[in-house]
Structure formats: structure tokens, C-alpha cells
UniProtKB/TrEMBL annotation:
Family: Belongs to the NDK family.
Catalytic activity: a 2'-deoxyribonucleoside 5'-diphosphate + ATP = a 2'-deoxyribonucleoside 5'-triphosphate + ADP; a ribonucleoside 5'-diphosphate + ATP = a ribonucleoside 5'-triphosphate + ADP
UniProt entry keywords in alphabetical sequence: ATP-binding, Cytoplasm, Kinase, Magnesium, Metal-binding, Nucleotide metabolism, Nucleotide-binding, Phosphoprotein, Transferase
Active site residues of this protein: H116 (pros-phosphohistidine intermediate)
Name assigned to this protein: Nucleoside diphosphate kinase
InterPro entries given in the database record: NDK-like_dom (IPR034907), NDK-like_dom_sf (IPR036850), Nucleoside_diP_kinase (IPR001564), Nucleoside_diP_kinase_AS (IPR023005)
Stated role: Major role in the synthesis of nucleoside triphosphates other than ATP. The ATP gamma phosphate is transferred to the NDP beta phosphate via a ping-pong mechanism, using a phosphorylated active-site intermediate.
Length: 142
């Protein structure tokens, strides 16, 4: 089925100047960018977005990292977009990420890992709503 998923290019990858390279990987995988915005997250936004990880030992570091510079947030649309994006990203820990994936090529650690992608349909919906109003999403005519 055609799905949408929320993708974030994290501060480390924005700083490496590889937004275009990462967008190209999405497009080559059959994913279309149907909404996008660059912003620097406030503490409130970073904590809110990752609220599910509040009790984890890495939460504070995660929030500080996500606030450390601008991020690109985008909605990706396509057949099986959630799983396809996770495939293109590679494993959360770059040491375990398959060769040729975004994290294998650009991530430096499990915390500093270049990209985020929604992990399931329900979280995709919540995460898209966190950043975008319905009218900011431009579905691709097909
Ligand atoms: P992400 O997909 O953005 O969702 C939660 C993030 O928490 C994850 O990517 C990692 O960057 C981060 N994370 C997960 N586990 C750890 C960990 N053990 N140490 C630091 N950061 C982590």
C-alpha cells in the first residue's frame, strides 16, 4: 500500500552537507518528498518528539544532539514507505548498518546517526502531525 513516513536528517548529516545525497537515495528507492522544512529544534520540540524515550538513559544526550544544529524534516510517500525508508537508512547502530545504507555511509555512532525514520504506521501518523499541517503535504499525482 502507499504509505507516508516522517524522516529527519539530523544535525550531524546537515553539517556534513549531504542533504542532497540523502534525498537522492530516497528518490532512487521510489520514495517521493511530499513535504519538507528546515528548522532548528527547540528543547520543547526535541523533548516532545522523543517523549517515548523520556525514561531512557540516553534521553538527555539525544535531546541535546537534536538541538545542536538545523535539521531537515520531510514526509516521504511511496509503496511501503515506512519499511523502505528503514531499509535505506540501515540499522540504528552504524556498526550494524548494511553497506551502502545512509547510516553506514554517514553515521558515526548510535546516537549521532544521521537520520530518523518512523518505525510503524501509528508512529508515522503521529510524527507527521508533529511537524506538518495537512495542507503542507503535497501528495504526488500518480
Ligand atoms: P532514532 O531513530 O532517531 O530514534 C531514537 C534515537 O535514540 C535513535 O535514533 C538513536 O539515535 C538514539 N539512541 C538509541 N539508542 C541509543 C543509545 N544506546 N545511546 C544513544 N542514543 C541512542
Amino acid at each position: 500500500a502507499v504509505e507516508r513516513t516522517l524522516s529527519i536528517i539530523k544535525p550531524d548529516a546537515v553539517a556534513k552537507n549531504v542533504i542532497g545525497d540523502i534525498y537522492s537515495r530516497f528518490e532512487k528507492a521510489g520514495l517521493s518528498i511530499v513535504a519538507a522544512r528546515m528548522l532548528q529544534l527547540s528543547r520543547e520540540q526535541a523533548e516532545g518528539f522523543y517523549a517515548v524515550h523520556k525514561e531512557r538513559p540516553f534521553f538527555k544526550d539525544l535531546v541535546e544532539f537534536m538541538m545542536s544544529g538545523p535539521v531537515m524534516v520531510q514526509v516521504l510517500e511511496g509503496e511501503n514507505a515506512i519499511a523502505k525508508n528503514r531499509e535505506v537508512m540501515g540499522a540504528t547502530n552504524p556498526k550494524e548498518a548494511a553497506p551502502g545504507t545512509i547510516r553506514a555511509d554517514f553515521a558515526s555512532s548510535i546516537g549521532t546517526n544521521a537520520v530518523h525514520g518512523s518505525d510503524a504506521p501509528e508512529t508515522a501518523k503521529q510524527e507527521i502531525e508533529f511537524f506538518f499541517k495537512p495542507e503542507e503535504i503535497c501528495p504526488r499525482s500518480r
